[in-house]
Design goal:
- With 117 residues, the protein is an all-beta fold.
- 0% of the residues lie in helices and 53% in strands.
- The chain has strands spanning 3-7, 10-12, 18-25, 33-39, 46-51, 58-60, 68-73, 78-83, 92-100, 104-107, 111-115.
- Strands 2, 4, 5, 6, 9, 10 and 11 form a seven-stranded mixed beta sheet that branches.
- A hairpin with a 6-residue loop joins strand 4 (33-39) and strand 5.
Length: 117
């Protein structure tokens, strides 16, 4: 049974930091590209960051470059998103995603991040 379980969301003031975690099970984690998406109210889901399987290369949306860092631990089957210098516009539900072309795509249930004073 495939599971992606996010944690670490919450309420934070502008300029603050949060670390989101995603624990994966039920599939060969190291084979999958891991991604974080987010969806704000009334907006489409957008890709925030992804990290490639083996060499750890990562990519970021322009809106979060320099502030967010994605990293994975293939031994622990986890992927994390360190979010610094948070802004109100970062407020959204954040989703963990696993993707392997031709094999499958999986989603977590999401975790709410609210940036507000």
């Amino acid at each position: 049974q495939v599971q992606l379980v996010e944690s670490g969301g919450g309420l934070v003031q502008p300029g603050g930091s949060l670390r989101l975690s995603c624990a994966a099970s039920g599939f060969t984690f190291s084979n999958y590209v891991m991604r974080w998406y987010r969806q704000a109210p009334g907006k489409e889901r957008e890709l925030v960051a992804d990290i490639i399987r083996a060499d750890g290369r990562s990519n970021y949306a322009d809106s979060v470059k320099g502030r967010f860092t994605i990293f994975r631990d293939n031994a622990k089957n986890t992927v994390n998103l360190q979010m610094n210098s948070l802004k109100p516009e970062d407020t959204a539900v954040y989703f963990c995603n696993a993707y392997f072309r031709g094999y499958g795509e999986y989603w977590g249930q999401g975790t709410q991040v609210t940036v507000s004073s």
